[in-house]
Amino acid sequence: MSTLTSPGEPSDAPLQSRDSSGLLLKWLLPLAFLVLVVAVWEFCVDAGLTPQRVVPAPSEIWAAFFREWNTLGPAWLFTVEVTVEGFLLAVIGGVVLAVLFSMSRLVEYTLYPYAIILQVTPVLAIAPLLLVILSQGTVLLICVWLVAFFPVLANTLIGLRSTDHNLLNLFELYRASPWQKLRALRLPSALPYFLGGVRIAGGLSLIGAVVAELATGAGGARGGLGYVIYLAPRYFAYPRAYAALVLLSLTGIVIFLLLSFASHLLLHKWHESALKREN
C-alpha cells in the first residue's frame, strides 16, 4: 500500500536524489581525473616526450605488478606488518600518556617536553644509530612509534581536557572517583579527538615504516617496500620501483578508508562531526 504525502508535507525524494548524485560525483570525479592523468602519462611516454627507461609508462608499471610480484608481495606484507604493529604501539602509548598527563600535571610537566623532542627528531637521523645496537625489526617498530604516537597523544589529551566542566562538577557533586570520571565522562568526550589523531597516525605509520626501511636499508638491512624502492634504481628496475610506490599509495588509501569507516561507526549516531544533516 503506497504512502500519500499531504500538500504541506515535504517529500524526501529530492533530498535522496541530491544525496545519491553527490555521492556519485564524489567517486566519479576523482576516478575521471585519475584516468585522465594516466592517459596523458601513457601518451607522453609513447610519444617519446619522457625517457621510458627512467619514467616507465603506466602499462609497464601495471605489468611489473605481475612480473615482479615474487619480490613485491613479500616486501608488501613485511611493510604492512611493521606498519600495523607500530601503529598499535603508537595508539596504546599515546592514549596511556594522554591519560597520565590529564590526571597529573606533574607527570605532564616532566615528560611532555621529551615527547616533543622525540616528535621533532628526524627518523632518518635516529634509525642508523639505533641499528648499531638493536635489531632491524626493533628499529623499524621504534621509528614507526616515534612518528605516529604524537598525534594520538596530542589529540587525545585535548579531548580529555575538553570535557564539559558542568558535567565534571555534577560528577564531583555525586562524589565520583577519578576513575569513574575518566571511564564514564572523560574518555567518551575525548573519543572524537582520539579518532582524529588515529586517522593521522595511520598514514604516518606507513610513512614511518618506509622511511625507516630506507634508512636501515642503507646499512644493509632488507625487508619491505621501502628497501625495494631504495634498491631498484641501482639495477635500473624503474618499473619495479614505481610499482612498489603505487602499492604503497594503495595501502595508505586502504588504511585511511578503514580508519575513517571505524570512526564513522563510532560517531555517526551521536557526535556533531558525523551526523548527517539536511542541506
Folded structure, characterized:
78% of the residues lie in helices and 0% in strands. Helix 4 (105-120) crosses helix 6, helix 5 (123-133) crosses helix 8 (178-217) and helix 6 packs antiparallel against helix 8. The protein has helices at residues 13-46, 58-67, 69-103, 105-120, 123-133, 136-161, 165-173, 178-217, 225-231, 238-267. The longest helix is centred in the last third of the chain and has 40 residues, at 178-217.
Q: Short description, anyone?
A:
With 279 residues, the chain is mostly helical. Helices cover 78% and strands 0% of the residues. The longest helix has 40 residues, at 178-217.
Mean pLDDT: 82
Helix content: over 70%
Give me the Rg, rounded.
Answer: 24 Å
Task: Please report which band the strand proportion falls in: under 5%, 5-15%, 15-25%, 25-35%, 35-45% or over 45%.
Answer: under 5%
Number of helices: 10
Based on Cα principal axes, name the global outline.
flat
Describe the largest sheet: none
Low-confidence stretches: none
Structural class designation: mainly alpha
Overall strand count: 0
Order of helices and strands: HHHHHHHHHH
Task: State the distance separating the first and last CA atoms.
Answer: 30 Å
Please supply descriptive tags for the structure shown above.
single chain, 279 residues, mainly alpha, 0% strand, flat
Tell me the layout of helices and strands.
Layout: H1 13-46, H2 58-67, H3 69-103, H4 105-120, H5 123-133, H6 136-161, H7 165-173, H8 178-217, H9 225-231, H10 238-267
